[in-house]
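Page 37, continued from 36.
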């Protein structure tokens, strides 16, 4: 059974770059037809898809955040990483990494990590 674990700093200052890593066990991020995503849930709001990297390394981003978002992967470590630049307090949220069978889907999800952006 696949397991996903988010890691990274819990506090980031405004205007800096938020960087989170998802470590995957129990399945390879290069296995055909699996899609690996980042999702967040701001306080009091619903979940929001940020972007996806697929089994081939192709990336897909939420249009409204595309200019600030970058997702990459390290296949040797079976990890994928989110970078969100120029953060503001509005980027404060619980961030999740997830696996699905299509872009922006999440059949399996990590436990989430709280990221707070200080002004």
């Amino acid at each position: 059974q696949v397991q996903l674990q988010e890691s990274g700093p819990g506090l980031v200052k405004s205007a800096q770059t938020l960087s989170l890593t998802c470590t995957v066990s129990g399945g390879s991020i290069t296995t055909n037809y699996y899609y690996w995503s980042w999702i967040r849930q701001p306080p009091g709001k619903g979940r929001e898809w940020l972007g996806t990297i697929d089994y081939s390394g192709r990336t897909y981003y939420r249009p409204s955040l595309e200019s600030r978002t970058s997702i990459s992967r390290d296949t040797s470590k079976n990890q994928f990483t989110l970078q969100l630049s120029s953060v503001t307090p509005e980027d404060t949220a619980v961030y999740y990494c997830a696996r699905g069978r299509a872009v922006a889907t999440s059949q399996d999800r990590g436990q989430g990590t709280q990221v707070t952006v200080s002004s």
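The chain is about 0% helix and 50% strand. Flag for discussion at group meeting. The chain has a mean pLDDT of 97.
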